[in-house]
Amino acid sequence: MRIVVCMKETPSTEVSKSLGTDQRLVRNPTETIQNPFDEYTIEEGIRQFEQHGGEVIVLTMSPAQTDTAVRRALAMGVDRGVVVSDPALAGSDAVATGRVLAAALTKIGYDMALFGQASADAYGGVVPSIVAEFLGVPLLSFATKLEVAGTTVKIQRQAEVGYTVAEAPLPALVSIAKGINNSPRYPSMKGIVNAKKKPVETWTLADLGIAAGTVGTAAARERVTGSQAVSTQRRREIHVGNEGAAQRILDYLIEQKII
Amino acid sequence: MSNDIWSVAELEQGKLKNISLQLASKAAQLAQASGGRATAIALGAGAQAAATALVGTGVAKVLYSDDSVYDTYLAQPATDALAELIRAEAPLAVLIPATNVGRDIAGRLAARLGLGIEYNVTAAEFVDGALAMVVPAFGGQLNVSVAFAGEGTKLILARQNAFQITRSDATATLVALPAPAAPAQGAKVSGPFGIEGITAEGHMSTEGGHAQYVPPPSRANVEEAAIIVSGGRGVGSAENFAMIDALAKALGGVVGASRPVTDDGWLPHRHHIGQTGRTVKPEVYIACGISGAIQHQAGMQTSRSIIAINKDKDAPIFTFSDLGIVGDLTVIVPELTRLVEARKTH
């Protein structure tokens, strides 16, 4: 079985961020990290590969010139990487991103492609379904458990409270919810050394037969018109000490007509 | 293109979710501004009953289908039905819940019809004839104003609790929709709805190899709760969540958590409130032992009242709380529970 794990580098949430004059995120390549959701997805890809054999590949589309996140995935146990990088991709919206990933998946060839449920920066969570639509394949989304048997993939799908069971014939896409709790492994020293020798291919839009004008800022259907810092105006009353604290909260709840 | 505004309802286990009424209300309001008509669409088990509830929000038309195909397959039949309707009637905008189900449908619609899509929208108004929207960014530190570029129906994935439910006496037309065929290559719901730990009361579980406190289902749905008692790492252990749950029970609220708590498995993930978890807007949010990282703030900052209990007087949460208590939650929370219970008995 050939498994492709789609991942994304996101800005670290530990650093302060701002929008540039072009209303796009100011990116510093040293500040990108593996999307925290993707760790679970990569782990699941490797686990399925260990169970069923074949090949596990990581795919990313990145305006940044770093391959830190891809190398980390390789160090965890992924066989090889594909990076789609092209200056024309800057400013791409979710539909354009989905178009590119769908083209790359077709070129790679896949039985099952895995996605994180969303990226931690924009948290759109729509790319998996966009890719599924472009490819004309089923998407099993928000999986908290994943099992492949023969040519069928079966998941437990996160619901508001509890879960539903869903299945689809391969080839299929699966988005992995963080609730999968599969304890992502840390890369071992040996893994880190081996990762340096594993192949990472870089493809441009031309390699995928996608016209530059159909992606990037020019093709984006959404635009940012401004931004404003969020003000949190609160009473900020402070009560210090355990003494009388519970009574103060009770009085406050009564004042606010909550109880 | 028409000036009509549509909203898509969400049903879970045959029950209309609150966000459906919020979006239908918003659609009715936006349609007044655009000079169009508002339509709500409900698909799946319970849709016919839901249609009646949607009428009261002020929409002019409700389209519904109870067909079982919508609950048998994920997203694809709903996409087929909506794509057909959008192609035929070209509404100005469609409001879709920014939920797991809504994201799947909106993504497929955007790809199939080549439409623009904005996600996690918390405000939408017409400004100078164009839709102006707000989405939170960087963990809620920034409100980013966004607009659509280009032609075509606009898809808006709107967050839970972003819009108020309005009531109207206006009448509406109810129209039953034909159902699409089952998809040839579909993601099929093949098992029954399951739930971990179906008990009326909270309990400890060791499933998954670690100690976890599992609140009962009645105190698990944070998104629609009016009162949330939430715990962070400062609660100290999975076992200590029993006291958080006891306060939630006394207040008639639900149990929430910050990310470290669910990451460490002290509570199930469905309780996680924050940027990458659920967004909530209760009447009161009681944060116990939560320091107040920006990612958590993003999920609860629009709560009407915020009360924080924390040992650390410098915890960031005190900067955005209405009432801050510097103290030991293991003393204060049980005492507050007793006071609330005592008040109820007389």
Q: If you had to describe this structure to a student in words, what would you say it looks like?
A:
The complex is a heterodimer of chains A (259) and B (346). With 259 residues, chain A is an alpha/beta fold. Chain A has a single domain (2-219), classed as 3-Layer(aba) Sandwich (Rossmann fold), CATH 3.40.50.620. Helix content of chain A is 29%, strand content 29%. Chain A contains eight helices and 13 strands. A nine-stranded mixed β-sheet of chain A has the order 9-8-7-10-6-1-4-5-11, sandwiched between helices. In chain A, a hairpin with a 2-residue loop joins strand 7 (139-149) and strand 8. Residues 12-16 of chain A have low confidence and may be disordered. Chain B has two domains: 5-176, HUPs (Rossmann fold), CATH 3.40.50; 203-344, TPP-binding domain (Rossmann fold), CATH 3.40.50. Chain B contains nine helices and 20 strands. In chain B, 59% of the residues are buried. Chain B is globular, with a radius of gyration of 22 Å. In chain B, a hairpin with a 2-residue loop joins strand 8 and strand 9 (130-137). Chain B has a seven-stranded parallel β-sheet, sandwiched between helices. Chain B has a five-stranded parallel β-sheet with strand order 17-16-18-19-20. In chain B, helix 4 crosses helix 5 (100-113) and helix 6 runs parallel beside helix 9. By secondary structure, chain B is of the alpha/beta class.
Please outline what is shown here:
Chain A has 259 residues and is α/β, with parallel strands linked by helices. Chain A is 29% helix and 29% strand.
- CATH class category of the largest domain in chain B: Alpha Beta
Question: Can you summarize the main beta sheet of chain A?
Answer: 9 strands, mixed
What is the element string of chain A, with H for helices and E for strands? EEEHEHEHEHEEEEHEHHEEH
How many domains in all of chain A?
A: 1
CATH superfamily of chain A: HUPs
Order of helices and strands of chain B: EEEHEHEHHEHEEEEEEEEEEHEHEHEEH
At CATH level 3, the topology of the largest domain in chain B is Rossmann fold
